[in-house]
Amino acid sequence: EKHSASKKNIVLIGFMGVGKTTVGQMIATKLKREFIDIDQYIEQTYHMSIPQIFEQKGEPYFRKLERKTVIDICQHHYNNIVSLGGGAFQQKEIREFCLENCLVLYLDISWESWKARFELINENRPVLNNRSLYDIQQLFNERKHAYSMHHLKINTDNKSPEEVTASIIEALQ
Ligand code: S3P
After folding, report:
1. What is the CATH number for 33?
2. For the chain, what is the domain count?
3. What ipTM describes this predicted complex?
4. Which of 60, 84, 120, 149 shows the greatest Cβ crowding within 10 Å of its Cβ?
5. What pTM value is reported for the model?
6. What does R_g of the chain's alpha carbons equal in angstroms?
7. For residue 139, how far is the Cα from the chain centroid?
8. Cβ < 6 Å from ligand 1: which residues?
9. Is residue 173 one of the residues assigned to a domain?
10. Closest ligand 1 atom to Cα of 16
11. What are the tens digits of pLDDT across the range 21-45?
12. Mind telling me which residue stretches traverse the membrane in this protein (predicted)?
């Protein structure tokens, strides 16, 4: 074993808009750990917003940066809370690395609850642009398979970020 369980990074996965960043920040505060949001880190490091990277460089380029960033961050930091973009776990390399080295926490949401929040989360997400609700539901279902590979799952339906955070803290004890 590379490092003890208590030093492992906790990696948050789940579909766009499920609350990975908000909840990640809250868990970090409660557990007195550092918080890193991979998308924010990419934006700061490369001085471009995620939509700009998609537009100017294309999605495959973004996925490469995402892969490099997740693995670098998790290799060089311990005991952190790390929130991943909703598509990151589709990458086998990211998935395998995180499952082996981190505690993978899946924030689950039902399609019905997600749809009810859709209007609130549509901004700045290139993957949602120009997609019908039907197409988004397809994507939502396709991604479930990758998300099913995790260590711990918390359902977020009808829960506030505070309630989700409390459930996570309880589950971690
Ligand atoms: C993506 C989700 C986004 C961001 C990018 C692509 C996806 O992260 O990484 O726009 O493919 O689901 P959030 O899950 O934080 O929105």
Report:
1. 3.40.50.300
2. 1
3. 0.97
4. 84
5. 0.94
6. 15
7. 15
8. 16, 20, 39, 50, 85-87, 125-127
9. no
10. 14
11. 999 999 999 999 999 999 999 999 9
12. none
